[in-house]
Amino acid sequence: MVGTAEKVWSGIGAALVGLVGVGALTPSTGAAGPLALGSTEGPALSTVTVTDVIDGDTVRAGSQVIHVIGIDSCPVSTPGGIEAKEMAEAMLGGRRVTLRTEPGVDRDASGRLLRRIDLADGGDYGTFMVPFAHTAADASYGVSRQYLADLRDNDGNGRTCG
Question: 59-71, pLDDT tens digit by residue?
C-alpha cells in the first residue's frame, strides 16, 4: 500500500510542476477545492474522497461534481441505473480515489468535471464498470482513442437499462 500511495503523490507532484494556476486539494482531509487542469505532458492527478454517488457514472467530492469520462451508465430511474448506482456506491462511496484528466478535456456544458477514476487498488473504475449491462463505453466528451478502445474491448454487451 505504501508503494501505491508514493506513486500517487509522486504523480500528483509531477503533474503540478507542469501546470500554471493550480488550485489545491487538502491532502490530509481530501476536502475538495478547485482542481488542476490537465497538462500537455500527461494526465494531471488529484486525490479526493467521494462524498456522494449521484449515479453509476457521476459522483461528488465536496462541492465538485465529477462525471466519469468514457462510460455511460443507465439513468437511476431504471432498473439498470439502480444497479449501476448501487455498484458505484459500493466501489466509490466514502472512498479516496484518484481523478485523472484526459488531455484537453476539463468540464462538460453542465460544469461537471470530466475525469477518469483510479481506484485505491490501482484499477480503473470505467474498465471495471463496462462489462456490466448497466454501463457502456461512451465516446462523448473527447475521451482518448486508446482509452475508448480499451473500454470497448471490455464492453461486450453495450448498455441495457431494462
Answer: 999 999 999 999 9
Dihedral-angle region of residue 62 (phi above 0 means left; psi in -120 to 50 means alpha; beta otherwise): left
Taking the C-alpha atoms of residue 4 and residue 97, their distance in angstroms, rounded to an integer, is 12
- The x, y and z cell numbers of residue 15, run together, are 503533474
Q: In three state form, how does the secondary structure of the chain look?
A: CHHHHHHHHHHHHHHHHCCCCCCCCECCCCECCCCCCCCCCCCCEEEEECCEEEECCEEEECCEEEEECCEEECCCCCHHHHHHHHHHHHHHCCCEEEEECCCCCCECCCCCEEEEEECCCCCEHHHHHCCCCCEEECCHHHCCHHHHHHHHHHCCCCCCCC
Contact 99, 48 (CB under 8 A): yes
Structural Rg of the chain based on CA atoms = 15
Give the pLDDT confidence of 6-23 residue by residue, as tens digits.
433 333 333 332 322 223
Q: pLDDT-derived band of residue 52, with 50, 70 and 90 as boundaries?
A: very high
